[in-house]
Design goal:
This protein has 171 residues and is mostly helical. It contains eight helices and no strands. It has one domain. The protein is elongated and about 80 Å long. About 6% of the residues have low confidence. This is TAT leader-containing periplasmic protein.
Length: 171
């Protein structure tokens, strides 16, 4: 066999394998797409990575903060311009599909099956990527998470921020 034929066959085989893996349904790993139309499962995996150090240490408080942040993210997405919503939806769909994961992360392992350090490494590689698209994806996700988390007044104390009291100053 010639070297060129071997390389062409290997590339074609890899492409076929990647496409076949993409059609491997998320239902096989327990994800019901109809119940997760707002990508809460995906976001619940990424939130602890982005909010490391900001979340409470107590498990119940941490869980409640994550749920409130997921609700705030849904609200934030609902008021975004249509083109931004479409871009976010496309990113979420790619992160939930095997082929998209392969393209964006170099691995077909679902994000929910990765440990914290693997997710940190993935996001760090996006942040420092030479591709502007990857940097934009990182920044968009980070800004969405941070803005949604800190939009809740209960988190303002960590920023040493107090709501202005204009009415009290005018008395």
């Amino acid at each position: 066999m010639e070297r060129r034929t071997f390389i062409t066959t290997a590339i074609a085989g890899t492409a076929c394998l990647a496409l076949g893996v993409n059609y491997y349904s998320a239902d096989d790993i327990g994800v019901n797409k109809d119940l997760d139309n707002n990508h809460r499962l995906l976001l619940s995996v990424l939130l602890p990575v982005f909010l490391d150090g900001a979340l409470p240490d107590v498990a119940a408080l941490k869980r409640d903060a994550l749920h409130r942040t997921l609700d705030a993210i849904e609200h934030t997405i609902s008021i975004l311009p249509l083109d931004t919503k479409a871009e976010l939806e496309q990113l979420f769909e790619m992160l939930e599909g095997r082929l998209g994961l392969l393209i964006l992360t170099g691995s077909v392992t679902p994000l929910m099956m990765r440990n914290q350090s693997e997710l940190v490494d993935m996001l760090q590689s996006w942040r420092t990527s030479y591709l502007d698209l990857m940097v934009t994806a990182y920044q968009g996700l980070r800004e969405l998470v941070m803005a949604s988390y800190y939009s809740s007044p209960e988190h303002w104390s960590r920023l040493h921020y107090a709501k202005p009291s204009f009415l009290e100053d005018m008395k």
